[in-house]
């Protein structure tokens, strides 16, 4: 193992320095210069969900700087247009299009995808960033727990519906914005909708992010005929409006260590833009493949993973 790899591993296992701005500062010094190169996404169309705030906003800005047409997909069009104007002030040449969709609402996802296919014949990268951390258990119109619907079911359905557009791209990418918080949670194979026990929003969030990571290899195999590269990643600890609202105490304690939204967005943008395409079906942090478990207690059997996949596919209206 090289010294660089050893330092990276220590940062990863010790969590606090690795997930903080320190980890980003150390690791970014080892990255290849000009990767991705300027104009890496010229002519490409990149769809970013949750693009009106935090990491999603930073992903949209970075993809636009690399030349992409960015479909800023948001729940509130008015807020999305406001952020678009803000980004255009920083980069007047940016090609930004606001699209409206609530990814937790499967009916809305279907309607949105049908319209989008008529407006955009090709999508080069689909970055599933939209997130929610509910203070209390809530269900969507289809009866699914909100975190599961937002982070898993909606992205599954949206990607499946947009596969024809992704297949038109020379090197299509799908990126799932997960979280390092998933390391603390086992796969909830017996209670995906969080109907049992006392509900905690942070736990629901982490559980749904664990599901994303568990399903990534399955999705990679499922979409291989469309040449889609599938990746899950986590951004580290990032100072975003969502963090301040959902976990104010954590933010106050860790504020000096938190990454900027741009730093948190980096790996997602890199996964969408670097060439050649990175290996598919893996979990990434700071541009490197990471373990999906650090504790034996969080590991799942293949039967448990298959059951979770079957439930999620059927809940999203897909054929497993």
Automatic annotation (TrEMBL):
What sequence ranges are listed for the domain Ketoreductase?
44-208
Q: Which PANTHER family match?
A: DEHYDROGENASE/REDUCTASE SDR FAMILY MEMBER 12, DEHYDROGENASE_REDUCTASE SDR FAMILY MEMBER 12
Q: What protein is this chain from? A: SDR family NAD(P)-dependent oxidoreductase
Q: Which organism is it from?
A: Speluncibacter jeojiensis
């Amino acid at each position: 193992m090289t010294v660089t790899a050893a330092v990276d591993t220590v940062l990863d296992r010790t969590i606090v320095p690795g997930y903080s701005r320190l980890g980003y500062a150390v690791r970014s010094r080892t990255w290849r210069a000009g990767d991705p190169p300027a104009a890496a996404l010229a002519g490409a169309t990149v769809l970013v969900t949750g693009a009106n705030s935090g990491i999603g906003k930073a992903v949209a800005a970075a993809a636009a700087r690399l030349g992409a047409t960015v479909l800023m997909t948001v729940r509130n069009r008015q807020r999305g247009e406001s952020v678009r104007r803000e980004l255009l002030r920083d980069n007047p040449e940016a090609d930004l299009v606001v699209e409206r969709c609530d990814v937790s609402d499967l009916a809305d996802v279907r309607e949105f995808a049908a319209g989008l296919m008529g407006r955009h014949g090709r999508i080069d990268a689909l970055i599933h960033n939209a997130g929610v951390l509910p203070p209390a258990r809530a269900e969507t119109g289809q009866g699914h727990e909100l975190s599961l619907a937002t982070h898993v079911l909606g992205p599954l359905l949206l990607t499946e519906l947009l596969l024809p557009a992704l297949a038109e791209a020379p090197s299509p990418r799908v990126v799932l914005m997960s979280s390092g918080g998933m390391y603390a949670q086992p796969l909830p194979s017996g209670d995906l909708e969080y109907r049992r026990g006392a509900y905690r929003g942070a736990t629901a969030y982490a559980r749904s992010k664990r599901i994303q990571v568990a399903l990534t290899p399955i999705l990679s195999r499922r979409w291989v005929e469309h040449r889609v590269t599938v990746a899950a990643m986590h951004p580290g600890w990032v100072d975003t409006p969502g963090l301040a609202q959902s976990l104010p105490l954590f933010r106050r304690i860790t504020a000096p260590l938190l990454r900027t939204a741009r730093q948190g967005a980096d790996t997602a943008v890199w996964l969408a833009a670097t060439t050649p395409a990175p290996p598919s079906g893996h979990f990434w942090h700071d541009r490197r493949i990471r373990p999906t478990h650090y504790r034996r207690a969080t590991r799942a059997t293949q039967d448990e993973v298959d059951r979770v996949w079957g439930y999620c596919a059927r809940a999203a209206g897909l054929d497993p």
